[in-house]
């Protein structure tokens, strides 16, 4: 019997009618890497789900080709043999095997199996872990209707290297599932140690030359499936894997250090926002229009992440030093991190106080070295500077966006000698261990100006946007790379008509991954 567009769509309607509500939730979870599950849940339109699959070319209902392989694979995983039989009715003519071996990767199958093995006791245990270990608030917990919602929150809030170990602690009593999770965790460690990406669902390879790697094989063999789909990237140059998946060069210690993250602490920590808008000498240090917008954004953002935010406006150098000295004396043992945001004029390695004098950046950061502030030892110290680091403007090599009118955050002292724009060579730096665990995010490179307009600075606007969009799925360093890309595509035009670009510069002395976790409170 020849399959047609009409009978294919009728079949989808028939399948939709046979799917229970629980079945549909399971199906959308299996398709989550392909179709936006949140939108389907909100619309509660089941047929729209099938339309989305067709738009993504995952299924095809055409006169020339009918391809429902994804649904067949999903129903086989779900154990819905009656629906598999219904799919077989479309005929063997145009209905042919997709060039893609499988649509549901091993990671998704494993999470599905976790869901299938979850009863009320496990669900309550998972929700308790979401509250105590992930920082999910009561409002979000109350919206969780079933295990699929619970897994959605876990995937949204945690990286794979955090999520799967947490799941293993919940399902320790289930020997089979615990073993599958353990295999997957070991595979994540192997991929992470060899330079692969560990915190994302892997991109499935298309075509007959797609490679199969150890992790997919290990987990699939334990799950009893015929398909091997995880396909983590092969080892990078300089490291190899033996046939049984063991590393030939990396030790267990190396694996641990590659995957470790800073503890988030009982409290997120303190966030200081130093906002200098007006200065003693307006001729050399003009009013920084738009800085209050940056101040408000930073205050809102870090409150969102649970920080105790303290804002100080128009502080002199002496006041800044005294204020930071007081923060240094606080016992930070229950805090996860320290954040200090400085919005001011500046120059190379300097920021300007409201008094018009310059304060060395090193004098600010050194207060919180491990030997000067022991309660912050081993914890991330995140310093954000929206300030110029010189007088030069960066040329636009390839303009992609319309220029935005902007001012710079350099002071305007005339006849100042040209500033050094080169970063010292690595061998010139002498960073003692006491200076570890710092992340210093400059809005611009050494020697160059930083732009701002009435809406705020390019850098802070982008930083706040991406911290909110990507935390905690991405660590802060990865987010700063995205901020670099975003800011570099924004072109500034000075009041004199000059067009210039800007590229921020993060300085990283962190020893672990640093994540920010939103809290469920009104801010």
Automatic annotation (TrEMBL):
BP GO annotations: apoptotic process; protein maturation; proteolysis; regulation of apoptotic process
Protein name: Caspase-8
Domain Caspase family p10: 433-518
Coiled-coil residues: none
Origin superkingdom: Eukaryota
Boundaries of every DED domain copy: 7-89
An MF annotation (GO) of this entry: cysteine-type endopeptidase activity
Keywords: Apoptosis, Repeat
Stored PROSITE patterns: CASPASE_CYS (PS01122), CASPASE_P10 (PS50207), CASPASE_P20 (PS50208), DED (PS50168)
Species of provenance: Magallana gigas
Family of this protein: Belongs to the peptidase C14A family.
A Pfam short name: Peptidase_C14
One GO CC term, this protein: cytoplasm
Region (Disordered): 211-246
CDD domains, per database record: CASc
InterPro entries per the UniProt record, alphabetical: Caspase-like_dom_sf, Caspase_cys_AS, DEATH-like_dom_sf, DED_dom, Pept_C14_caspase, Pept_C14_p10, Pept_C14_p20, Pept_C14A
Domain Caspase family p20, chain residue ranges per copy: 267-392
The UniProt record lists the keyword Repeat: yes
């Amino acid at each position: 019997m020849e399959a047609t567009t009409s009978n294919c769509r009728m079949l989808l309607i028939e399948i939709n009618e046979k799917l229970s509500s629980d079945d549909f939730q399971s199906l959308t979870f299996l398709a989550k890497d392909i179709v936006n599950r949140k939108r389907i849940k909100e619309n509660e339109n089941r047929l729209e789900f099938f339309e989305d699959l067709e738009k993504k070319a995952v299924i095809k209902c055409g006169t020339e080709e009918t391809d429902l392989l994804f649904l067949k694979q999903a129903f086989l995983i779900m154990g819905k043999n009656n629906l598999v039989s219904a799919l077989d009715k479309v005929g063997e003519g145009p209905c042919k095997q997709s060039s893609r071996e499988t649509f549901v990767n091993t990671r998704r199958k494993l999470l599905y199996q976790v869901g299938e093995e979850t009863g009320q006791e496990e669900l309550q245990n998972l929700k308790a872990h979401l509250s105590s270990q992930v920082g999910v608030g009561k409002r979000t917990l109350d919206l969780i209707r079933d295990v699929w919602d619970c897994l959605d929150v876990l995937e949204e809030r945690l990286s794979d290297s955090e999520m799967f170990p947490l799941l293993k602690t919940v399902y320790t009593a289930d020997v089979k599932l615990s073993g599958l999770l353990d295999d997957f965790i070991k595979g994540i460690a192997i991929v992470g140690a060899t330079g692969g990406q560990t915190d994302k669902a892997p991109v499935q390879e298309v075509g007959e030359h797609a490679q199969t790697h150890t992790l997919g094989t290990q987990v699939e063999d334990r799950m009893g499936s015929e398909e091997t789909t995880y396909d983590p990237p092969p080892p990078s140059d300089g490291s190899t894997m033996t046939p049984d998946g063991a590393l030939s060069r990396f030790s267990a210690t190396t694996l641990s250090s590659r995957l470790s993250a800073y503890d988030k602490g009982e409290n997120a920590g303190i966030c200081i926002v130093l906002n200098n808008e007006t200065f003693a000498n307006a001729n050399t240090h003009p009013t920084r229009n738009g800085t209050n917008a940056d101040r408000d954004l930073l205050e809102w953002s870090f409150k969102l992440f649970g920080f105790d935010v303290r804002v100080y406006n128009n502080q002199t150098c002496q006041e800044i030093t005294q204020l930071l000295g007081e923060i240094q004396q606080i016992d930070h043992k229950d805090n996860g991190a320290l954040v200090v945001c400085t919005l001011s004029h500046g120059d190379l390695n300097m920021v300007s106080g409201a008094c018009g004098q310059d304060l060395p950046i090193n004098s600010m950061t050194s207060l919180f070295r491990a030997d000067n502030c022991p309660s912050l030892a081993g914890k991330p110290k995140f310093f954000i500077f929206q300030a110029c680091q010189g007088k030069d403007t960066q040329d636009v090599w390839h303009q992609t966006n319309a220029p935005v009118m902007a001012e710079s955050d350099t002071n305007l002292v005339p006849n100042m000698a040209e500033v050094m724009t080169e970063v010292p060579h690595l061998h010139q730096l002498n960073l003692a261990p006491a200076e570890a665990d710092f992340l210093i995010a400059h809005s611009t490179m050494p020697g160059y100006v930083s732009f701002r307009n009435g809406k705020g600075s390019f850098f802070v606007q982008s930083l706040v946007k991406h911290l909110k969009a990507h935390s905690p799925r991405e660590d802060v360093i990865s987010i700063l790379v995205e901020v670099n890309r975003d800011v570099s595509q924004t072109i500034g035009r000075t009041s004199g008509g000059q067009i210039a670009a800007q590229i921020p510069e993060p300085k990283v002395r962190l020893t672990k991954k640093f994540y920010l976790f939103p809290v469920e409170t009104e801010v």
